[in-house]
Amino acid sequence: MSKRLALSLLAAIFAVAPAFASGGGGGGGGGGGFGAGAPSDAAPAYDPVVEYRNGVRFMEAKDYAKAEAAFKRVISVSKQEANAHFLLGMAHIAQDEWKPASKALKTAVKYQPAMFEAHARLVLVSRKLADAKTEQTHLAALEAAKSDCAGTCPNARAIDAAFALLEAPADSQQQSALPPAFRAASAQFGDGAYLEAVRLINLGQYDAAKQSLEQARLAFGPHPDVLTYLGFANRKQGNYTQAVNFYRAALTIAPNHVGANEYLGEYFVETGDMPAAEAQLRKLQKICRFGCAETAELQRWIDAARS
CA–CA separation, 190 vs 201, rounded Å? Predict the structure, then answer.
């Protein structure tokens, strides 16, 4: 399934707004349907990928109030998008808004505990607020990560960078509200990271694929194709809770996303919830009124499970 899905995406992936425009469509790229129905339809008020990219551009331009508004719009649609919460926190820091910065950064690490710079920023913000409890909590989290890693894990560089931030002079800690990883995450960078993830998934290298998908996520925020493949990779590793969370996040943004709908149905088959799997099949049949590969594949899974 993943090779077919990848090939169907190449022509349109990450055109940002157009990625959600068509209903049905092949694989993971189609079917958001933003703006396609009546205003009363159950659809997000904002395209979070567009708003995320807008927010990054506003951060680059040091227009932090507009960046703040853009990231809040992302979060209104994709509540668990850790990068948006982190960048919202950075926009608040740039405006000397310490309490809302703390709230945003705490939410970021809630959804992505390995976001080490967010932990470091929380330590610094907590010092501004004289919040010793929060400072110690997140300093301890960094110290535990450093101890567990011992300089040899894939996150070693990020952990070291977080400690370097804490040790830097105060004036250099706020030189840029947009961290280097986000400044470097252009659309071209995101495309490359995504396609590398597809290659790694096809090879069954799911840990490496997830790392590449997180790099794509830096560039594009909560893009449903990225979220769908994060769900797929986690499911293949047996991480079912994480997988379902990613599938549902993708479907919140793009309810007719055929890839996410198919993979969610496969998850239901794997976990023995056949009524839910069949409900997903009916949904796909409605989305793909003239048939699509995703419907046929989920039907095959259901038939195999029933036989």
Answer: 16
d(CA 125, CA 167): 14
Tokens of 89: 């926190």
**Dist CA 56 CA 70 (whole Å):** 9
* Cα 65 to Cα 246: distance, rounded to the nearest angstrom: 29
Going along the chain from its start, the domains and CATH numbers come out as 2-42+184-306 (1.25.40.10), 48-183 (1.25.40.10)
Local structure of 19: helix, strand or coil: helix
Q: Which amino acid is at 72?
A: K
Distances from the Cα of 83 to the Cαs of 67, 111, 233, in angstroms?
A: 13, 9, 20
pLDDT tens for 68-108 read 999 999 999 999 999 999 999 999 999 999 999 999 999 99
- What confidence tens digit (pLDDT) does each residue in 198-255 have? 999 999 999 999 999 999 999 999 999 999 999 999 999 999 999 999 999 999 999 9
> Coil, strand, or helix at residue 204?
coil
Contact of 283 with 50, CB cutoff 8 Å: no
Tracing tokens 């989290």 back to the chain, one arrives at: 141
Work out the pLDDT band at 185, boundaries 50, 70, 90. Answer: confident
At 83, list the tokens. 């990068």
Type of residue found at 215: Q
Read off the amino acid at residue 169: P
Q: Helix H segments across the chain?
A: 2-9, 48-60, 64-77, 82-94, 98-111, 116-129, 132-149, 156-167, 180-183, 187-202, 206-220, 224-236, 240-253, 258-270, 274-287, 293-306
